[in-house]
């Protein structure tokens, strides 16, 4: 319903008309209220008319009343009615713009007292203000919703791009490793063809080359007992699904560190798989581990086997780059081992000894760990409340295996974890020696995360140095030399432990437990 602008100008003035045309309804209401106040004050002054003349026959009161007002002035009742009607028209017009479905035909009301008109005006002003604020609030809400939707779309696009990039990167790495292995096989084969006499005559060099070529050929061929896919993604985001482990066998997880950087036992007989978790991708090496009869003899076919999942913690990311202890994605590693259905996990560590009673080169199987400063967890709810421990059954099995192999392990002790990557000061070593005998940078993180996932876990370590301030002065060069010298012995001990665990079916006890 439209408002007669000419009536509005005549009744309330030019300023009121300008405010109405510019949409400034709050200023419009203020101007109208002030004009009405002035009109009502003028009406009150004129409410006491002069004494009327004596009554005359056939005199009409209405005519006498009209003649009592000066010429050119308007009758108060008529002007008040015009003002109310103009305000009603304005209010109906604003309400029709905001809520058209509630439009109702305007009804003409009789003139009312000044108090009633003032209340109606106040109510009208309040309704106009509320409608304006409501419309402004709707605009803000729509703007925020549009911004939020745009941000969500951008985040979803970024996530899809990251997933595709990781998938492509992992596949390129697998292709590169395959090509390198194939080139090594071809190179050794060509060398054998050039010197066949030396091989037939039992030449030691030729024999080594032939054996290396055979080993590499076995690497390139995937045995039937291994998972069929070279790489798969254990996630709903990808179409490739993880191949199930071989039935009627048990799955053991092994987390290796710097002491197994160059271990051939975990690179030549296992297949690389990239497992995707909510914490990131993890490179795992999966395959069948069969116990050897003795020494380096091939596995005995009748012997029981187990599925092995090996993770090199410092090189667990798909890019293959070295990660410092503080940068290792421990959460992703723990989740990947759970995804691959490991029934138990053994962590392999290079440690320092804080007591002269446990010397360099000694194998140690700790019974507990100490790490109260930076505790990791996976769950954000009640599942993170666990009682930490190193599994006693698994620890005893490792100790028995090392003892049977003649490695003379130290049974017990406490593993103390520090942040790294630097070595500890002498004062720090004296402090930590109050709580344990071994010191490292990674073991407690893996233990507490696997505890939260309810996966039995045990530690297995070798002492590569005496801690700073214990014995001879510690140098980085001496540490590296000792670690390199102990690497072969460490690999031999790990292989023997795995053979014993596979042959005695130790994991069957964990598989049957709830």
TrEMBL record:
<dbReference type="InterPro" id="IPR035994">
    <property type="entry name" value="Nucleoside_phosphorylase_sf"/>
</dbReference>
<protein>
    <recommendedName>
        <fullName>Nucleoside phosphorylase domain-containing protein</fullName>
    </recommendedName>
</protein>
<dbReference type="InterPro" id="IPR010044">
    <property type="entry name" value="MTAP"/>
</dbReference>
<dbReference type="GO" id="GO:0017061">
    <property type="term" value="F:S-methyl-5-thioadenosine phosphorylase activity"/>
</dbReference>
<dbReference type="Pfam" id="PF01048">
    <property type="entry name" value="PNP_UDP_1"/>
</dbReference>
<keyword id="KW-0660">Purine salvage</keyword>
<feature type="region of interest" description="Disordered">
    <location>
        <begin position="43"/>
        <end position="120"/>
    </location>
</feature>
<feature type="domain" description="Nucleoside phosphorylase">
    <location>
        <begin position="328"/>
        <end position="498"/>
    </location>
</feature>
<dbReference type="GO" id="GO:0005829">
    <property type="term" value="C:cytosol"/>
</dbReference>
<dbReference type="GO" id="GO:0006166">
    <property type="term" value="P:purine ribonucleoside salvage"/>
</dbReference>
<dbReference type="GO" id="GO:0019509">
    <property type="term" value="P:L-methionine salvage from methylthioadenosine"/>
</dbReference>
<keyword id="KW-0328">Glycosyltransferase</keyword>
<feature type="compositionally biased region" description="Acidic residues">
    <location>
        <begin position="189"/>
        <end position="198"/>
    </location>
</feature>
<dbReference type="InterPro" id="IPR000845">
    <property type="entry name" value="Nucleoside_phosphorylase_d"/>
</dbReference>
<feature type="region of interest" description="Disordered">
    <location>
        <begin position="186"/>
        <end position="214"/>
    </location>
</feature>
<keyword id="KW-0808">Transferase</keyword>
């Amino acid at each position: 319903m439209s408002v007669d602008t000419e009536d509005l100008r005549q009744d309330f003035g030019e300023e009121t008309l300008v405010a109405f045309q510019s949409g400034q309804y709050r200023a419009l209401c203020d101007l109208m209220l002030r004009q009405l106040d002035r009109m009502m004050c003028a009406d009150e002054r004129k409410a006491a008319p002069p004494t009327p003349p004596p009554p005359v026959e056939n005199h009409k009161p209405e005519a006498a009343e009209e003649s009592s007002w000066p010429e050119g002035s308007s009758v108060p009742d008529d002007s008040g009615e015009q003002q109310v009607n103009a305000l009603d028209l304005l209010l109906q017009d604003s309400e029709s713009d905001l809520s058209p479905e509630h439009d109702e035909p305007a009804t003409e009301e009789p003139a009312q007292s000044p108090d009633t008109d003032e209340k109606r005006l106040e109510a009208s002003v309040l309704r106009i203000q509320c409608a304006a604020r409501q419309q402004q609030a709707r605009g803000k809400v729509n703007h925020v919703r549009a911004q939020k939707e745009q941000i969500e779309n951008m985040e979803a696009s970024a996530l899809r791009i990251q997933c595709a990039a990781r998938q492509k990167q992992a596949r390129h790495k697998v292709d590169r490793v395959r090509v390198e292995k194939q080139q090594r096989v071809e190179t050794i084969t060509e060398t054998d063809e050039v010197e066949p006499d030396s091989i037939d005559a039992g030449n030691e060099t030729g024999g080594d080359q032939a054996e290396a070529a055979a080993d590499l050929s076995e690497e390139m061929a995937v045995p039937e007992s291994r998972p069929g896919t070279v790489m798969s993604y254990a996630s709903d985001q990808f179409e490739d699904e993880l191949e199930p482990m071989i039935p009627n066998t048990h799955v053991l997880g092994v987390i290796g560190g710097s002491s197994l950087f160059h271990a051939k036992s975990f690179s030549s007989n296992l297949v690389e798989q990239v497992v995707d978790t909510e914490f990131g991708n993890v490179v795992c090496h999966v395959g069948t581990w069969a116990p050897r009869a003795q020494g380096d003899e091939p596995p005995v076919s009748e012997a029981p086997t187990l599925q092995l999942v090996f993770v090199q913690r410092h090189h667990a990311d798909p890019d293959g780059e070295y990660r410092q202890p503080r940068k290792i994605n421990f959460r992703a590693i723990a989740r990947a081992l759970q995804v691959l259905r490991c029934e138990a996990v053994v962590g392999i560590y290079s440690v320092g000894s804080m007591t002269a009673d446990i010397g360099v080169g000694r194998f140690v199987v700790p019974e507990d760990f100490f790490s109260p400063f930076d505790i990791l967890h996976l769950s954000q709810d009640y599942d993170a409340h666990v009682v930490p421990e190193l599994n006693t059954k698994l620890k005893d099995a490792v100790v028995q295996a090392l003892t049977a192999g003649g490695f003379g392990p130290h049974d017990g002790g406490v593993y103390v974890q520090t942040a790294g990557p630097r070595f500890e000061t002498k004062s720090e070593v004296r402090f930590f020696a109050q709580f344990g005998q071994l010191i490292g940078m990674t073991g407690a993180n893996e233990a507490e995360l696997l505890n939260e996932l309810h996966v039995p876990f045990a530690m297995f370590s070798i002492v590569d140095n005496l801690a700073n301030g214990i014995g001879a002065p510690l140098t980085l060069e001496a540490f590296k030399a000792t670690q390199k010298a102990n690497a072969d012995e460490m690999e031999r001990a790990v292989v023997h432990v795995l053979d014993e665990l596979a042959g005695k079916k130790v994991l069957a006890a964990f598989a049957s437990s709830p």
